[in-house]
Structures are given as structure tokens and as C-alpha cells.
Design a protein that fits this description.
The complex is a heterodimer of chains A (about 1050) and B (about 280).
Chain A lengths: L1 H6 L1 H39 L2 H4 L1 E6 L18 H4 L6 E10 L8 E8 L6 E6 L7 E5 H7 L6 E6 L13 E13 L3 H4 L11 E4 L2 E4 L4 E2 L13 E6 L11 H11 L4 E2 L2 E5 L1 H44 L1 H9 L4 H37 L11 H27 L2 H4 L8 H23 L6 H35 L3 H12 L2 H38 L3 E5 L4 H11 L6 E7 L9 E4 L4 H4 L22 E2 L3 E14 L16 E8 L5 E9 L3 E10 L6 E10 L4 E15 L2 E2 L21 E5 L5 E8 L4 E4 L7 E6 L11 E4 L5 E8 L11 E5 H7 L7 E7 L5 H10 L4 E6 H9 L2 H44 L4 H34 L22 H28 L11
Parallel strand pairs in A: 3-10, 5-7, 16-31, 28-30
Antiparallel strand pairs in A: 1-11, 1-13, 2-3, 2-11, 4-7, 6-7, 8-9, 12-13, 14-32, 14-33, 15-16, 15-32, 17-22, 18-21, 18-23, 19-20, 19-22, 22-27, 23-24, 23-26, 25-26, 28-31, 29-30
Chain B lengths: L6 E12 L2 E13 L4 E5 L6 H8 L7 E6 L2 E2 L5 H10 L1 E4 L13 H14 L7 H8 L14 H12 L6 E5 L7 H18 L2 E5 L3 H5 L3 E6 L2 E7 L2 E4 L23 E6 L2 E8 L2 E2 L2
Parallel strand pairs in B: 3-8, 3-9, 6-7, 7-8
Antiparallel strand pairs in B: 1-2, 1-4, 4-5, 9-10, 10-11, 12-13, 13-14
Helix pairs in contact in B: 3-4, 3-5, 4-5, 5-6
Classes of the chains: A alpha+beta (about 1050), B alpha/beta (about 280).
Chain lengths: ~1050, ~280
């Protein structure tokens, strides 16, 4: 046995290598998946604040448990859950009212007793409280109020809630200061508890501000039963190292069952750990799709290669089987002989493959994954090893079966009988499955294992079909070359036609290249989508969310930092609390594109957002001045229960200016009134009542008499101004067109300017106010609307929240698929337009500064700070991309790199192994030709050309099939952990560049390998080969 | 000691199917080889010599007719029975020494490999060394095969075919491609086997010198027994149906379709071809 293995040493090495790779592929999948799951968990848990992963049992005193203390809450947490947590930290707290200095009002504060608290405090003076009513005060308060040791404070003790009426008076507690503290930062201990930070700030109590004071620290004994409303908590910091993928579901289940909704003896158990775990679960689900998707292709390829190589190896052992039968062995016995040799060879690769997979996963664990991922050998990897053994054994058994079926007389022939029929069945089956898979994927009706295997099946079918068609082509080419006297090309063609290895090499190279192309495309397409998502999420390379609520201040600061507006731009995002509402994003339409990312596949028509070229009119002064002349006629209506009023008796018509205050509030200023019938003229001198300035928003005329059926006529206003200074608003182009309140009415308000500084309004009112709005802000603001039209509107007119939260009338100038930051639902409007409307930011809004160059972050932060604007949060594209890169999907798709590399390695091995297994026959054939007079150099060149053609044809077929698979199978690859519809929409069009680069890379590996194998074989052409038989 | 096995065929026909055509390799061979006899099968290429040898070895089943080797009627044996037959009762030397040998084993190991089936079947086998000594290769028993000259390789092939001490040894051109010295060594070995073990030996050969050293030769022609040679004399062989193939030298004188009168005078049978519509006397 060993002698036989040694005799074909090179072939044995390749077989061992092949089974090593098969095993490594199979075992690496569960190892990688497991390591990734652990990595996701570690990232999520380690990235979460300690407080988020802690478990908190909370309870208040009541008539049932009037002396509840933290220790009493331990029973609320099951022992199996407690095992995952460190020793709990108990805390009692209640409200106190302290008069910091005589003469001041009492400040509300909090008194806290926390277990082992003094170990986590630095005492700047005094000592730790040891008895009831002894307290520590913060060092800041002590210094601010000059509190002394021994100083006593009296506070009201909040008694128990009771239904007794009248409520008995609260008791008093006398607290003695025994020391002062500073907090030692320790998130694992303090969790969400913050003792200090309030000193020096003000609280509003009722209507009066009072100084805030930091928490007092005391002992549990202080909270005797008189403190009836004291809250006790028992916090369990998570022992993160104990949380594993294995106990994730169990922990979630147990905590979920106990948390929030359940209470034990009045205690409430809280933890945000399930939320953290939920994110991990999403990633796990994606990994369980991606890893099998990619590894199934590789496994199929590896299995097919093993079978093909097994067949080649068995073919080479036909003479040995024949000898065994000649000497009396049965068919089965002769087969077993071959099986034993090949099985032993292949089995050597199993432990090597297992070790290789372990080493690979260890490299990944140490270099790529989050710290703290344990070294593990999951049961699945052992199962994968067993499965590899079974696959290897099956491949050998299946390869040997035809040998066992052959009669001894057939075995004694040098050439194996043709099995064209069997191959035809395989071809038809592969083509049928591939077509079925492609149609299924294209119509989105195919799922499951066949869907996962379709890319490989397509390449398999392509390779088989092309290699079958190549036989007659090679034959024809050979004859043509021969007739023209071109011996070399003829030998190449006939070699391709004759050798059974040809079909195998073409098929395997096709599958391997297809897999590599598919994998490379998957990586590039995934990265493209992650980039698009990260860009959309962030909006710009760097975004500084500010605490500013004034859009003008922010815009001014931004402009001061970057006068060109091409590097820094202000952005406002206004969200409403209602679910499904349409948020507004306001951008500087002129400069936004040069700073922000454009959503992938979108061409935002920002030019459509630009405000009209009409300057805002700011009204500042005391009185509205000018001259108004009217000539009106009216009709009265019949009011119920009375006779028609005479038009002459109708109440007057109001002329009003529509303005907005500095805070964006819409205001109305009555300018004058005039009769609804008749004519006249009047000088205007009306108080403006805009002490902090107003913006002119429009002008309207309103019949005040409900009985007015129609009012029509002309109103001419000359020299309308403030304190005698004309506003300069007489041009009709400065005003928005008239928009009737309701459609189908005859209301109208036409504007003309017959002479300088004169506005002539021709009005017709059916009893309602007719208005023209000033043109600095369009009547309907243009917006780019992503997602559905907000309820109650149409694309031509809908409302969205303005800066102040008030509804803004918008029409859709474009319907892009997504908008930066707000995603698939939102409307983008012009920042300057909203700025003209005035007002400060509503509570649901954010004013931010977007930067093109993240390197300017510090500079911009400082400049904003100099303008009194603080930065609340910094968002960067890099961080967003990093999050996506390290998501479950990110890690999963990265496996494509491994599968691509392995596919090429496997293909290279097949090229080598086919040469190794067939070189004796080839060398003998060519030696015969050499004896017949063909020059050795011609023979060798023909061999090399033969290999290059094989690899070239296989690569071409693989590239086409890989691109086709990429087209139809990419939707199977979940690119995002978030199960909701991806925004922006996933772009799965194959990357031509990726396909080409992968193809070239494959050629760069496979062509030299093929050429080297051919050269090696060519060197063995010698006349003595003619004598060889085995 | 196992004695040689006799071989007999009756109406043996074998037809090959190739690319849709039937080709008759043997078309009614009647032949008897006595136990312990040494017989050479002669004849032109394609005459059916190797096919006959293959049928003797149970490697193929005849299309018609019977083949008996010793007590075994090969045409009716099942495949396992044929396997056991090859394991113990017949040794076969394929054409080309290296086709009989596993190249990665020594001569001794090859003999031992060939003995396994017989051993498993409970048959007694001679020691490998004894076999090698018999053929005169004991000195090279453990040498790598690729270091042996062609003659010794052929002796190794002979040793392998004798591994189970078969009653019948079949050799397909066992001396082809050998120098005459080596050829004689191999022929000597064959005779030694026949003499010492009583093994029946049937060899196919094209070599007249080899044929001359064999006590009996059978010439196969067109799938039939054409003639036999005994002690240097060539004889035509009357078949079971009474037909008599002419010796090759006489075929030109009696072309196909020629009318021949058989004349018997004083115990002498004379063939007289018809000339011009009447035969000469």
C-alpha cells in the first residue's frame, strides 16, 4: 500500500493537498461562523455601556414591605441569571430638600446610600458616614457653600403614600455633614448613578430658580421606616466574559421573562441587555445565510474536484486492478485494493485540513476579529470533519465503481471504454438544474439549497457543455492544421480532443473562476452598498451636531468658517415624533452638493430648491405709512332669519399685513379698514407693533361682514412703508401668485403697479380673505420628496415641518429614492428659505454643520465654540462605514475572499493533478511520436499550448458564468443586518471591474501553473516511456 | 503436488463486437491439450491465438462452444468460480513483461501479491522464494524492478504467473522483445516448470525458433486450427465436421471455389484439382 502511494508520490501529495483543502473548507465554515458570532457579541457587549448590560432590580417601600432594602430585591433575580453577573451593588435613595444657606429657599436634592460607596469616592475632608443621619456632601457644594464638618441640615422625610386624609405631617430628619467627596470615575460601579455635576447650576422650582445641589451620600441606616418613599435598587454588573453565543438565547429568554413587565414582590427587574443581544441576533441570522451561501459553492466545487481527481487516479490504476483480477481477485476485491490506496492517501488530508482550518480561524480571530473572542472548536466543526471524511470516501467509492463494473478483459485494454453516455446524463442534469436555478432566481421564486448552489451549477453546466462542444472543434482544428502541415497546433488540437482530462480541467476551471468572479463581485458590490449606506446615514464625511437652535446664527457661523460654502455647510433636520411622519432636511441648495455625499444612483435637483431672487423685507420701526385709495362694490347675502342687508350697511373690509416674528410666529397687523361699498382715500399711520422686527410675509383684504356675498373693486396703495420710508415692494414680480383658499371660487387678488411705488390690487372676494404672499418665500416651497406623499397632501401640495415645527407648504420638485440622513422618507428643502421664514428650532430638530474634510473637525469645533455653539455629537462617514464593515453581513461577505482564493487554489491543484495523473500516458504517446520523427521541442510546445488552451477556455466560460450568477444570485446575499428594506435601495448590478480583475487574477495564477505542469510533463517525454505499462 | 491440467475445446466460437460490427475471432476451434503438455500457438496476427488463450484463462466467455480446463467447464462457470479458477488453477503471462508486474514492488513482493487470492481461498501455495528459484530469479528477488534487464523482467512475470503453482500456464508471447539469450533463458525456465511441476503450458508465439523448441505447435488460421506441428513435422488437422484446412503452401494451388477430386490409391490420398472442366487422373 505504502509502496503504491510512494510510487505515485506527486499524485499522492496532490491528493492529500486536495483532501486537506476540502476538509479545511468544510471545517473552516463553522469555525469562522462561530468566531464571527462571538465577535459580533463581543463587539456589541463591549461597545455597550456597562449600565446597558447590567441588570437592575428596583423596588419601592409600601405597606407590604415598609422596610424594603436592596438586599430584599435579590430574590427577584433567579439564581441562574445571577450567575452571569458580578456581586450586586445595592442603593437606596430618596428626595431631600436642603437649605444651602440661611435665607435661601430649599433646593431639592437627593440622598443616596450605596454599598461600599466610600471605596469609590475620594474624601476631600472628614470621614465616611458610619451611622444613621451622617452624610457626605460633594466637595464642590462644600466649597461653594462653605459647609463645615458637623454642620446639620434639616430635611423633610417623605412619608409613605397613604390614603389617610388629612395626610399626617411629614417627619423631619437632621443630617450631619461628616465629610466631603469627589467621585472616582468607575462605570462598572456607578452604572447610571451620577452623584455630582449639579452643583453650580440652577433649578426652576415653581417659577423661581434655585441653586441645585449634588447628592448627599449616607448609610442605609439613615433610611429608617419613616422614609416611606425611598427607592431601593440592586444592580448586577454583567460578567461579560460569561456571555457567550451559547447562552445568548437562554439569557435573553430569562431576562425577557423577568424584565420590565414582571415583578416579584413589587420589584421590577430591568435590563437593556436583550436590546444589545437583539442586534447580535440580527447579525447571526445574516451569517447563517451568507456563510452557507459562499461555502456551499466551495464545498460543491471541492467535492466535484475530488470526484474528478478520484476518477483520474482510478483510471490510472486500471492496470493494477486488471492484474489483481488476473491473479484471482474478485471485482469487489480489485476495487477495494484501489479504494484502500486512494482512501488512505485522501484520509491523510483530513487531520491536516482540520488543523489548517483551525490555524486559519485562529489567524482570523487574532488579527481581524474583536478582542476577547475565545478559541473554540464547535461541535459543528467536528461534524464538518466527519462530513468531509464521508465526502472524501464517497468520492473515492463513486470513482472506483466504474472500475468494479468493468470486465477483466476490458480492464486489460490500455484505453478505458468510452463513457460518453454517462457523461451525457451528467451534462443534461447539470444544465437542467442550472436553468431551473437561474429561472428560479430571476423570478425570485427559488430558495433553499438549490438557490445557494445555482452559481456553481451554472458554471458546472457551462463547463460541461463547452468542453463537450470543444471536442469536435478540436478534432476539426487538428485536421485542418495537419492538412496545412502545422504539426504543433495539430498535436495540440488532437491532444485536446483525445484526453479525457480535458473535459475535467475545463469544467473545474470554469467552476473555480466562476466562483472567484462571483466572490469578487460580491465583495465589491457589498462594499459599494455599504459605502452608499454609510454615506446616506452620515450625509457628509463629517457631521457636527450642534446645540444651536437658531438657524441664522449657525448659518452665519458656518459662513464665517468657510466663506465659500464649499467645505462647510449648515443643515437642519426637523423630525416629528409621530411614527411614519415625514421629516424635513433643510440644506444650502447652492453649496450642499460640494460638501455632502449624493445618495447612490441619485441626481438630486438641488437647483430646484433655490429661493426666489426676492429679498426678504424686514419691518423695523414704529408705524406703517402710505396712502390707500379704494373703489369697492359689494353684494350682500341673505342670512338666516333676516332680510338681505343693504350693501351700504355692510361692515368694512380690513387691509392687513401678514408678518412673522423673529421666532417664526405668524402675526397679522391690521393696516386700515374701508367700506365694502364706495370709494375713498386715506393716509396710513398704523402702529407696526414689531419691537424686535418682523418679516413681511404678505398682504390680505378681508371682508369682516358675514353678510358680504361678494366684495370687488380696486385698492391702490402708494408709498407703503415704515415711518415714511417705502418698503419698495410694489413690483408684482416680488409677490407670489394669488392662491385661492378653496378651489372653484371666483376669489381673486390681482396686482399691478401702474406707477412707481404704487400697488394696485384688483380684488374679488366671496366673503373670505384674499391674500398675496410676499415672494421671498414661495407660496409653496419646492422640495425633493423621498417616500410617499405625507397624508392629506398630493405631490403638488403637501405639508412638512418647518424649523419651528409649524407646517410648511411644499410641492415636490423631484421624487428621489432617498435623501441624506433622513433616508427613504423625508423632504429636502432650502435652508435659506426656512431661514427667511424665521423662528428657532423645534425640539425635534437638529442643527448641524457638515464638513467635506474631516481633518477640519477641530478647527470647526473651535470656531463654533467661539460663536457660542457647542457640538453635541460627531458623526463620521468612516465610523458609519466601519460599523457596516464589522457587521455580521460585513464579516460574512468577507468570507467571499477566502472562497475566491480557495477556488483558484483548487483549480490550480486540479490542473496539476490532471497532469500528474496523466503524464505517463501523455509522455508515452508523445515519445512514440518522437520516435516517429517529431521534434521534441514541437511536442513540448504542443503540450504547453494544450494546457494554456484548457485554462483559457475554462476561464472564459467561468467568467461568463460567474457574471451571470452575479446578476441573478446576488439578491440572495443579505448585505445588511437590519431586516428592514435597505436604504438606499441595494444596487446589485455586477461590477465589470471586479469581474475583469478576478478573471485576470485567475489567469495570472492558472496559466503559469498550467504551463509549468505542461513543461514538467514535457521533460518526461523519453523513448524509454514506450516500454512502460503502468 | 498439483498435476498439469488438460485443455479441450469443442466448436469454440468467439465474436467481438466493434463499432456495430461483429468480427469472428474464432469460428469453431476443436483442440485438445493433454495434461503436462507444452503447446505453442502459432499463426498470423489476428488469427485468434490470443483470443484462444484468453478463453483458456477464463478472461472472456466464448460466444459458442465449450472450453474445458481440467475439471472446469469454463463456459458455464459463474464469475466468482472463474475468479477462484484464476486464483489457483491457471497462471497467465500477458504480452509485455511489465504488464504483469506492479512496478513499485520487487519480484518477490509481486509473487506474494499474486498469491493472496489463492491464500485467501485456502489453497496451498509454494513459497515465493521457491517460485523464484524455479525460474532462476532468486538472486534478484528483492531488487527493484526497474533495475532488472528485460530477460529477468520476463522471468519475474513468469514467476508471478506461477505464484499459486497453477496446473495450466498460459503465455502470450512470453519471449517477444527479448534478446535470443534471454529468450532461451525464459524457454529453459518454461521447460523446467513443465518438467518439475508437470504444469501444462500453452504459449502464443510468432518466433519460429521458439516454435522449434516446443514439442507441439498448433497453427491458428482464420479462427480455426489450421495445422499442427509435432517434432518438426507439420500436419493438417481434420476438424470434427470432416473438413481439412490446406497447408498455407497449398492454398495458392487450390484457390477458393476450386473443385478438387480426392483420389485414394494404395493407401495414398491424392487431391486432384479440376482443370478445364475435367480433372486429371
Amino acid at each position: 500500500m505504502w509502496a503504491a502511494i510512494r510510487y505515485r508520490r506527486a499524485q499522492a501529495v496532490v491528493l492529500v493537498l486536495l483532501s486537506t483543502l476540502v476538509t479545511a473548507c468544510a471545517v473552516f465554515a463553522p469555525l469562522y461562523e462561530r468566531a464571527l458570532e462571538q465577535s459580533l457579541l463581543r463587539s456589541a457587549v463591549d461597545g455597550a455601556p456597562v449600565a446597558d448590560t447590567a441588570l437592575v432590580a428596583r423596588g419601592g417601600r409600601s405597606a407590604i414591605n415598609p422596610d424594603l432594602r436592596p438586599a430584599g430585591l435579590a430574590a427577584a433575580v433567579p439564581a441562574q441569571v445571577q450567575a452571569l453577573y458580578s456581586a450586586p451593588i445595592g442603593q437606596m435613595s430618596d428626595v431631600i430638600n436642603i437649605v444651602p444657606r440661611t435665607g435661601l429657599k430649599a433646593s431639592p436634592g437627593r440622598m443616596v446610600a450605596r454599598s461600599d460607596v466610600c471605596a469609590h469616592l475620594t474624601l476631600t475632608m472628614g470621614r465616611c458616614p458610619a451611622a444613621a443621619d451622617e452624610v457626605l456632601v460633594s466637595a464642590k457644594d462644600q466649597k461653594a457653600w462653605n459647609w463645615q464638618l458637623g454642620q446639620r441640615f434639616t430635611t423633610t422625610v417623605p412619608g409613605p403614600d397613604t390614603n389617610v386624609y388629612p395626610r399626617p405631617p411629614d417627619a423631619q430628619a437632621k443630617l450631619e455633614v461628616v465629610g466631603a467627596y469627589e467621585v472616582k470615575p468607575d462605570p462598572r460601579y456607578w452604572l447610571r448613578t451620577t452623584l455630582d455635576g449639579k452643583s453650580g447650576t440652577l433649578l426652576v422650582v415653581g417659577t423661581e430658580p434655585v441653586p441645585a445641589i449634588d447628592d448627599f451620600v449616607t448609610t442605609e441606616d439613615t433610611f429608617d421606616q419613616a422614609w416611606g418613599q425611598v427607592t431601593s435598587t440592586l444592580s448586577f454588573p454583567l460578567r461579560r466574559e460569561l456571555l457567550s453565543v451559547d447562552n445568548l438565547d437562554e439569557v435573553t429568554g430569562v431576562i425577557g421573562a423577568r424584565a420590565s413587565t414582571s415583578s416579584q414582590g413589587g420589584a421590577l427587574v430591568e435590563s437593556e441587555l436583550p436590546l444589545v443581544i437583539q442586534a447580535v441576533s440580527g447579525g447571526q441570522k445574516q451569517l447563517r445565510v451568507i456563510v452557507p451561501l459562499l461555502m456551499a459553492q466551495l464545498a460543491l466545487l471541492a467535492g466535484a474536484i475530488l470526484l474528478l481527481v478520484g476518477q483520474a487516479a482510478v483510471e490510472q490504476r486500471r492496470p493494477e486492478a486488471a492484474l489483481a483480477r488476473l491473479r484471482g481477485r474478485s471485482r469487489e476485491g480489485a476495487g477495494r485494493l484501489v479504494m484502500a490506496e486512494l482512501g488512505l492517501t485522501v484520509s491523510l488530508g483530513l487531520p491536516l485540513g482540520f488543523g489548517l482550518a483551525l490555524a486559519l480561524s485562529e489567524v482570523v480571530r487574532r488579527t481581524l476579529l474583536a478582542p476577547g473572542v475565545p478559541f473554540e472548536v464547535p461541535v459543528l466543526s467536528v461534524a464538518a470533519l466527519a462530513a468531509s471524511a464521508v465526502v472524501c470516501a464517497l468520492a473515492i467509492v463513486v470513482a472506483v465503481r466504474p472500475l468494479q463494473r468493468q470486465a477483466i478483459s476490458s480492464l486489460l485494454r490500455r484505453v478505458s471504454p468510452s463513457r460518453a453516455g454517462a457523461f451525457a446524463v451528467v451534462d443534461i442534469l447539470a444544465v437542467a438544474l442550472a436553468v431551473f436555478g437561474i429561472v428560479g432566481l430571476a423570478t425570485r421564486t427559488l430558495t433553499g439549497p438549490l438557490a445557494l448552489l445555482t452559481p456553481t451549477l451554472v458554471a458546472l453546466a457551462g463547463g460541461l457543455v463547452v468542453s463537450r462542444l470543444a471536442v469536435p472543434v478540436a478534432r476539426s482544428t487538428g485536421r485542418t492544421s495537419l492538412s496545412r502541415g502545422r504539426i504543433g497546433p495539430a498535436l495540440t488540437a488532437f491532444g485536446l480532443q483525445r484526453r479525457p482530462a480535458m473535459r475535467k480541467v475545463v469544467t473545474v476551471v470554469s467552476v473555480a473562476v466562476a466562483l472567484t468572479v462571483f466572490a469578487a463581485n460580491a465583495v465589491v458590490v457589498a462594499n459599494r452598498n455599504w459605502t452608499a449606506r454609510a454615506q446616506l446615514q452620515t450625509g457628509a464625511p463629517l457631521v457636527l451636531e450642534t446645540d444651536s437652535v437658531n438657524p441664522t446664527t449657525l448659518a452665519r457661523a458656518a459662513r464665517a468658517i468657510d466663506p465659500s460654502g464649499d467645505r462647510v455647510t449648515p443643515v437642519a433636520v426637523i423630525r416629528q415624533t409621530a411614527a411614519g411622519s415625514t421629516p424635513t432636511i433643510a440644506v444650502d441648495a447652492e453649496h450642499f452638493a460640494s460638501v455632502a455625499y449624493t445618495p447612490a444612483g441619485q441626481d438630486l435637483r438641488l437647483a430646484a430648491l433655490k429661493p426666489p431672487p426676492v429679498d426678504t423685507v424686514i419691518l423695523k420701526g414704529q408705524r406703517i405709512t402710505g396712502t390707500v385709495t379704494w373703489r369697492l362694490s359689494s353684494e350682500s347675502d341673505v342670512l338666516s332669519g333676516s332680510s338681505p342687508a343693504s350693501p351700504a350697511d355692510l361692515a368694512p373690509v380690513e387691509m392687513r399685513l401678514l408678518v412673522t416674528g423673529p421666532d417664526g410666529t405668524a402675526l397679522i397687523r391690521q393696516v386700515t379698514t374701508f367700506p365694502a361699498n364706495g370709494s375713498g382715500s386715506r393716509q396710513l399711520s398704523t402702529p407696526l407693533l414689531c419691537p424686535e422686527t418682523c418679516r413681511l410675509a404678505g398682504i390680505d383684504f378681508r371682508p369682516t361682514d358675514p353678510a358680504a356675498k361678494t366684495v370687488s373693486g380696486t385698492v391702490t396703495v402708494r408709498g407703503l412703508g415704515i415711518d415714511g420710508t417705502s418698503m419698495g415692494i410694489s413690483s408684482p414680480n416680488s409677490w407670489n401668485p394669488f392662491a385661492p383658499v378653496a378651489s372653484g371660487t371666483t376669489d381673486a387678488l390681482d396686482l399691478a403697479s401702474p406707477s412707481a411705488d404704487t400697488m394696485e390690487f384688483r380684488l374679488r372676494s366671496t366673503g373670505v380673505a384674499v391674500a398675496r404672499t410676499y415672494g421671498d418665500v414661495p407660496a409653496k416651497v419646492p422640495g425633493l420628496l423621498a417616500g410617499g406623499v405625507p397624508p392629506g397632501g398630493t405631490a403638488a401640495a403637501f405639508t412638512a415641518p418647518s424649523l419651528t415645527g409649524a407646517p410648511l407648504s411644499v410641492f415636490s420638485a423631484q421624487r428621489p429614492g432617498a435623501l441624506p440622513v433622513v433616508g427613504a422618507r423625508g423632504v429636502m428643502v432650502d435652508y435659506a428659505t426656512l431661514q427667511r421664514l424665521g423662528g428657532t428650532l423645534t425640539s425635534g430638530g437638529t442643527l448641524s454643520v457638515w464638513l467635506r474634510d474631516p481633518g477640519q473637525a477641530d478647527e470647526v469645533r473651535k470656531a463654533l465654540r467661539d460663536n457660542g455653539i457647542g457640538v453635541l455629537r460627531t458623526n463620521t462617514y468612516d465610523a458609519a462605514k466601519q460599523r457596516l464593515d464589522t457587521s455580521g453581513s460585513g464579516w460574512g461577505v468577507r468570507l467571499a475572499v477566502f472562497t475566491g482564493l480557495m477556488a483558484v487554489v483548487l483549480a490550480a491543484l486540479v490542473v496539476i493533478v490532471m497532469t500528474v495523473t496523466g503524464w505517463r500516458v501523455v509522455a508515452r504517446d508523445l515519445a512514440a511520436l518522437h520516435m516517429a520523427g517529431v521534434r521534441m521541442s514541437v511536442l513540448r510546445r504542443a503540450l504547453v499550448r494544450e494546457q494554456l488552451v484548457l485554462v483559457g477556455v475554462g476561464t472564459a466560460v467561468g467568467t461568463v458564468c460567474g457574471a451571470l450568477s452575479a446578476l441573478v444570485a446576488m439578491p440572495l446575499l443579505p448585505l445588511f443586518d437590519d431586516p428592514s428594506t435597505p436604504v438606499p435601495a441595494v444596487q446589485i448590478a455586477p461590477s465589470v471591474l471586479a469581474v475583469l480583475v478576478a478573471t485576470v487574477a485567475c489567469l495570472l495564477v492558472l496559466l503559469p501553473v498550467g504551463a509549468a505542469a505542461a513543461v514538467g510533463c514535457g521533460r518526461r517525454i523519453a523513448l524509454r516511456r514506450i516500454r512502460e505499462s503502468v | 503436488m498439483k498435476a498439469g491440467l488438460g485443455v479441450s475445446t469443442r466448436g469454440l466460437v468467439h465474436i467481438y463486437r466493434a463499432e456495430g460490427h461483429d468480427v469472428a475471432a474464432l469460428s469453431g476451434v476443436d483442440l485438445v491439450v493433454d495434461p503436462g503438455e507444452v503447446v505453442g500457438l502459432l499463426g498470423p496476427s489476428g488469427a485468434g491465438k490470443s483470443t484462444l488463450l484468453t478463453l483458456f484463462g477464463g478472461l472472456m466467455r466464448p460466444s459458442a462452444g465449450r472450453v474445458r480446463v481440467g475439471e472446469h467447464e469454463l463456459s458455464t462457470m459463474t464469475e466468482p468460480e472463474l475468479d477462484r479458477f484464476r486464483a489457483a488453477d491457471v497462471g497467465i503471462i500477458l504480452q509485455g513483461a511489465v504488464r504483469n508486474l506492479l512496478p513499485y514492488l520487487t519480484a518477490r513482493q509481486n509473487v506474494e501479491f499474486a498469491q493472496r487470492s489463492a491464500v485467501r481461498a485456502g489453497r496451498g501455495v509454494p513459497a515465493a522464494g521457491e517460485v523464484l528459484e524455479l525460474v532462476g530469479l532468486d538472486h534478484a528477488a528483492t531488487a527493484p524492478l526497474d533495475s532488472l534487464p528485460p530477460g529477468q523482467l520476463q522471468l519475474a512475470a513468469l514467476a508471478v504467473s506461477l505464484a499459486s503453482r497453477p496446473g495450466l500456464l498460459l503465455g502470450d508471447e512470453p519471449t517477444s522483445q527479448l534478446h535470443h539469450t534471454s529468450r532461451d533463458v525464459v524457454l529453459d525456465a518454461l521447460h523446467r516448470v513443465n518438467e518439475e511441476w508437470g504444469t501444462t503450458i500453452v504459449v502464443v508465439t510468432h518466433d519460429p525458433d521458439v516454435a522449434a523448441r516446443l514439442p507441439r505447435t498448433v497453427t491458428i488460421r482464420d479462427g480455426r486450427v489450421g495445422s499442427e506441428g509435432r517434432a518438426g513435422e507439420e500436419y493438417a488437422v481434420v476438424s470434427a465436421d470432416g473438413s481439412l484446412p490446406l497447408p498455407a503452401a497449398a492454398v495458392d494451388a487450390f484457390p477458393p471455389g476450386a473443385l478438387v477430386r480426392v483420389h485414394h490409391v494404395d493407401g495414398v490420398w491424392t487431391l486432384i484439382p479440376q482443370v478445364g472442366g475435367s480433372s486429371d487422373d
